[in-house]
């Protein structure tokens, strides 16, 4: 079985079928157009440049297109990049399908659905529970299919639900440690905070921003959805406003995209949980691409830092595995 694209090293030759995740047009210094392609398989993705493209090339090499690529891996400004030697669209006779290249969440959808429902049933406030159940049911299919983002974290099939499940388990641990936290508010905030992304993004494959996503954003979308759900269910009161505030404040600061800073304790904790889970995913995915004793590529969303993969941890892990045998 061929290894995943993220496991190739500098200097290695590549001869693979890959899926175009995104294609962005640019103009080179010589005035000629080029495409920046994000190419992916189940292991992850890698950037590649396609130079001197024609209008036909722009149509031919579009998102969700499977291509056969021959090239090599090189290091460009601290990041691995695939240098294309030749590229062509896949033919019907190649017997490859889009599903063969899609990275998916490590948990099955039914398992994630059961976990989310478990937390909803744990809610004691009927208004909070009813609003949360109503909105989850309304958007159930895309919620369990969509990624949590187009890049940076949980940008894979069912990534949104996996992000929420991870955050719910973090929330439950914090509720046990800090009993003064209201679990209903915190669990509802976790489930609803990014639910607007099913409208903000175009779909589970090669996700891009929709018109609503570009003009409104998932935060504004979900504040409106909570209001409509409460009206539909005949629910009035403070809970509705607090749920809206949790969504509004979950990015923490205005410069990070939050219309309001957290002004309720559970909103503050929601922001920390969201931030922690997203950053852990970014770091783990970057570390997966390097060997023990090496630094990762720079992670833009983490102040452009490179993270070191300690060599002694790999030795400890291998020794532990040997003892368990």
From TrEMBL:
Task: Supply the alphabetized keyword list.
Answer: Exonuclease, Hydrolase, Nuclease
User: Which InterPro entries does its entry note?
Assistant: 3'-5'_exoribonuclease_YhaM (IPR020873), HD/PDEase_dom (IPR003607), HD_domain (IPR006674), NA-bd_OB-fold (IPR012340), NA-bd_OB_tRNA (IPR004365), YhaM_exoribonuc/phosphodiest (IPR050798)
Q: Which GO terms describe its molecular function?
A: hydrolase activity
Instruction: Provide an example Pfam family for this protein.
Output: tRNA_anti-codon
Entry's Gene3D superfamilies?
A: Hypothetical protein af1432, Nucleic acid-binding proteins
Matching CDD domains: HDc, YhaM_OBF_like
Q: Where does this protein come from, organism-wise?
A: Geobacillus icigianus
Q: What EC number(s) has UniProt assigned to this enzyme?
A: 3.1.-.-
Protein name, UniProt field: 3'-5' exoribonuclease YhaM
- Tell me where the signal peptide lies: none
Provide the HD domain boundaries.
163-279
Q: Mind telling me which HAMAP family this protein's record contains?
A: 3_5_Exoribonuc_YhaM
Q: Which PROSITE patterns match?
A: HD (PS51831)
